[in-house]
Every structure is written in structure tokens, then in C-alpha cells.
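Request:
Um, any thoughts?
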Amino acid sequence: MGRPGVRLQEVLASLDDIAAFSLAAAWDNVGLLVGDPAMAVTGILVALDPTAEVLAEAHERQANVLVTHHPLIFQPLKAMRTDQPLGRMLAMATRDHMAVVACHTNLDLASGGVNDVLAARLGLTDITPFTADNGATDKLTGLGRTGRYAAPLRADEFIERLMAALATPTLRMVGKLPPTIARVAVCGGSGADLAEAAWQAGTQVLVTAEVKLSIARWSEAAGLCIIDAGHFPTENVIVPVLADVLRERLAHYGHDVKVGITATQRDPFVPVRRDDHAGHCAP
């Protein structure tokens, strides 16, 4: 039996062990964003994005700590207006005595974080960062990951595996997909700026999201195939893994606390087909 009465500061320490907050980019905002480190924890809910729906879900499930990848507070606040989305969410959190914690770029860079999970979901081996973090003490920390297939996949096999791994019905692609694929780079979320680094690392395909037109044109000229698989699908893979690792870490230290994942959050983007009725999105 684990010992009850875990405090938020102990959850923060466990998260820091998993993906050190010090790894975060200088422009980022990670760690405890709302709440008191000394508060008693009744339960933890993990989600990709902090939304009003997820805050309500956490409250309904009697979890008073919400851990998300993307920060609830990103830019400095000049006002907290409750007639606007951010103000309403902050008001919900404080009203319900809800702590909100972000693990953003620290979880992108960390060993075992977003990109390692994404690479593993695709079945890659020999996984290494292709952009090293100069401040890291190991060679497993950095932006993006490259890996390989011991037995190269056909193009159609790779696409089927990718769509199944990310549970996404659509992809966007720049350039030509090689007929057989052995080396792949991944960077969950907005990783298109790393296209040149992926190309220099000798990869055939980069899987990422939010690819700008200028990068797409560069990719065409360079001969690198980029697959834009969407921000949510390429990062949401970390949610169940983070919940499992956090649960195990807290249990290791004797803490008895429920850690769950959101059951309500979905990708905000939905595909629209040409033959759909005007104004209606595909299910």
C-alpha cells in the first residue's frame, strides 16, 4: 500500500526527473503555472492541451492536478479577463483549486520524451537525436530523432504504419516518397524548421507538422520528402506514456495517487471532403 497524502511539489519533482524543466527552451513556459506546491493531490489528469473541456473533465474525475504538454500560460499576462478563453480557463482552475503544470519543450528534448515515443511508435531502431542539446549531459537528449528500419519498408507499408501509429485519417506530403524507406527522421509538433538538419543526417523522410510553404519548396529542391502528419497526432502519442511513467515514478516513491489520461480531448482539426454538405465536416 502506497502512502497517501502526496503533495504537488512531489509530483513536480517526479516530472522533473522524467523531463528536467531546465531543458526547456528560453522562450518556453514550463513547470507549475497555476497552483500551490504544498497542496495535497487528489488525482492527476494528463492531456496534450489545456482546454476548458479538459479542466472540467479533471474536476469531474476528482483530479486536482492537470499536466499538459502545451502551456496554459504562454505569454506574459497583462489582464485576466473572464470574457476571453484564457481568462475563463484560469478562473475555472482557481475556482476548482486546480493546479496546472506544463511539460513542453523539456519533454520534446528529453530522452524517452515526445520524439522517442514517436520514433518507437513507427518501429524505428537505432534512435538518436539529430539536433543535439549542447547543455545535455548525455547523447540521448536533443531535438528530433532519426532511426532506421533493419528491413526497409515499401512506401505503402510505411504510410499504412504511420497512419495507424498516429490514428490519423489524413496526411500531407511534400516531395516524392522513396519506393523503399530505411532511414526516417521525426519531430513532433512544429518541427519543419529542422528539415535541413534531417536532410544532412541522411534521412529519406521527415515526419513532423506545420510545414511552411518556404520549407516545402526547399524540401522539393533538396529531394527530402516531408510528411506533415499534424501537430496533435505527432505529439498526442506522449500522453499515455507520460501518465504511465509518472504513475510508476510516484509509486516507486510510495505515493498512492491516481494518474489518468483525458478521455475527451480530440484533434481540433477534422478532414472536410469535397462531397460533404457545405459547412459540415467529416466525422
